[in-house]
Write a structure and sequence with these properties.
Blueprint lengths: L2 H6 L12 H14 L12 H8 L3 H13 L3 E4 L3 E4 L28 H7 L27 H14 L14 H15 L8 E4 L1 H13 L5 E6 L3 H9 L3 E8 L2 E2 L1 H7 L5 E4 L13 H14 L2 E5 L24 E6 L11 E4 L2 H15 L4 H12 L2 H27 L4 E3 L7 E6 L5 H10 L5 E2 L12 E5 L5 H16 L2
Parallel strand pairs: 4-5, 4-7, 7-8, 8-9
Antiparallel strand pairs: 1-2, 3-10, 5-6, 9-10, 11-12, 12-14, 13-14
């Protein structure tokens, strides 16, 4: 019996579903080669004979043969035919899984020990398919964002954009956007900078990641507000930092405590305009004390201004960066809380000596920010729409915290003491009858509410039990409904 006749006895599985016939034949022949039914050096049948046997067109068989040869399973000799390549080992597939995968040992490759250590406490935020739900803490008023206006600006930018905008962008960001941001933060927050000091990022989280990776060495000590923003803690811890929790009081971060705990810390993370999550503003004395310590210790300060624009009494507080004469403050901002969450654009204002290094670092992460999105945002800012939207939202959010506070005072009296926030898009409610804010949060979640326990943001220093309540993204009716449901939940055990 010839090798070709031996091949004719092979049992090939019938095509399944809508699979392309050439791919089915290629898969079946590859399986026969890998599990040793077709030995190295065996001569393949002619494409004509194989097509006749399985009612396939010659073109279909040729396509399968070409793919096998391209991947090194077969070789062709002019005038002699096609043969199974001699370099394919026998018996690499289990007969029970002949066309699925190689029967290799189960891989024991795993995440690094460092990754396993840091990722065990990281919670991935799920994609949300609803908006305006009580009491979602990280969402602005998406329902009030001027979508039609944004679409018109985007359409105009895309129509008029030069072809260069579709090419490789600047690692530091789109220059017109950097210029618009410099003008805006200078006028609104008193930040002193040139457009060249600005690096565009994919939100504040990428800025924190870059800072941690490129300013910290493994083991460097970092002051973190406690309670504080957990995702900042995670980003810096992942960079190898040794986190030093520093207590927060009515004046913000306790600098004296920080100096006592880690006088030679390399970096400090603060939210001075609206401390997350306590909502206090860092006093002038604390700001000066922090800057003096950082200058003497050669330490860096991350100033995270995640929602400082939303202040409901007087004008927004001037940035800590405005007082910095030593060049130690890295100012981080984001547009996600000011416009909408899907707009993953943020920025850093850096001391001049860091700009070149961070532009290079930014290029390592993902080459450059999305240029077209930056161009749209730049137009939105320079045409005045951004400032107008913020002024409108400031008024609406002030009304919404009033609604929340009024409803809470009436329906949650004796259960939850809700703070009338003076800034930001969320507030705290201090629990009166529950000893565990985690238990209270779970109870509220059973009733369909989205609340977060304050203890989720503490590391070392225990706080009285409290719930974080977002109000900016909820319309007044939803806030009143949420308060009513929360009252029922907290009374039910």
């Amino acid at each position: 019996m010839t090798k070709e006749e031996t091949f004719q006895d092979l049992s090939l599985n019938a095509p399944a579903g809508k699979q392309d016939l050439w791919r089915w034949l290629y898969t079946e022949l590859r399986g026969a080669i890998l599990d040793g039914r077709l030995k190295p050096g065996a001569r393949m049948p002619s494409t004509r004979n194989l097509g006749r046997q399985y009612s396939l067109s010659r073109g279909t068989v040729v396509s399968a043969f070409d793919q096998l040869q391209a991947e090194g399973y077969t070789r062709t000799e002019v005038g002699a035919g096609t043969f199974v390549a001699s370099g394919v080992p026998d018996g690499l597939l289990s007969k029970a899984r002949k066309s699925a995968a190689l029967a290799l040992p189960i891989s024991k490759a795993a995440l690094s020990g460092r990754a396993q250590k840091f990722l065990k406490d990281v919670e991935v935020m799920p994609a949300l398919h609803s908006i305006g739900k009580a009491f979602r803490a990280y969402e602005p008023a998406i329902d009030l964002f001027p979508v039609e206006l944004w679409a018109r600006v985007a359409s105009r930018v895309l129509r008029r954009a030069p072809r260069s905008l579709y090419g490789h962008g600047n690692a530091a960001g789109y220059q017109p956007l950097r210029r618009a941001i410099a003008e805006y933060v200078g006028a609104s927050r008193g930040v002193r900078c040139s457009p060249e000091q600005i690096i565009i990022t994919s939100g504040a989280q990428q800025a924190l990641d870059l800072i941690g990776r490129f300013l910290l060495a493994p083991g460097d000590k970092v002051w973190m507000e406690d309670p504080g923003y957990s995702r900042a803690l995670q980003a810096l811890r992942t960079a190898g930092a040794r986190i030093v929790p520093v207590p927060v009081d009515g004046e913000g971060l306790n600098v004296k405590a920080g100096r006592r705990l880690a006088p030679k810390a390399k970096l400090v993370y603060v939210t001075p305009a609206n401390q997350f999550p306590m909502g206090v503003t860092m006093s002038a004395d604390r700001r000066l004390e922090l800057l003096r310590w950082a200058a003497s210790a050669n330490a860096w300060i991350i100033e995270d201004e995640y929602d400082a624009e939303y202040r409901y009494f007087g004008r927004p507080i001037a940035a800590l960066q405005t007082l910095d004469s030593s060049g130690c403050v890295l100012y981080v901002g984001t547009f996600t809380k000011m416009l909408f969450n899907a707009l993953r654009l943020g920025f850093m204002v850096l001391p001049e000596r860091l700009v070149e290094a961070f532009a290079s670092a930014r290029s390592i992460v993902d080459l450059h920010p999305p240029t077209l999105d930056q161009a749209i945002l730049a137009e939105f800012i320079t045409e005045g729409h951004f400032g107008l939207h913020l002024r409108r939202m400031r008024q609406i959010y002030a009304e919404r915290i009033d609604v929340l506070k009024t409803a809470a005072d009436r329906q949650l009296d004796g259960l939850l003491d809700v703070v009338h926030a003076g800034a930001g898009i969320r507030t705290l409610g201090w629990l009166k009858t529950w000893k565990s804010d985690q238990d209270a949060a779970q109870q509220a979640q059973r009733y369909g509410l989205e609340v977060t326990p304050l203890s989720m943001f503490t590391t070392k220093y225990v706080q009285p039990p409290a719930l974080m309540l977002g109000f900016a993204g909820c319309n007044p009716a939803e806030l009143r409904r949420g308060v009513s449901v929360l009252a029922t939940a907290l009374r039910s055990r």
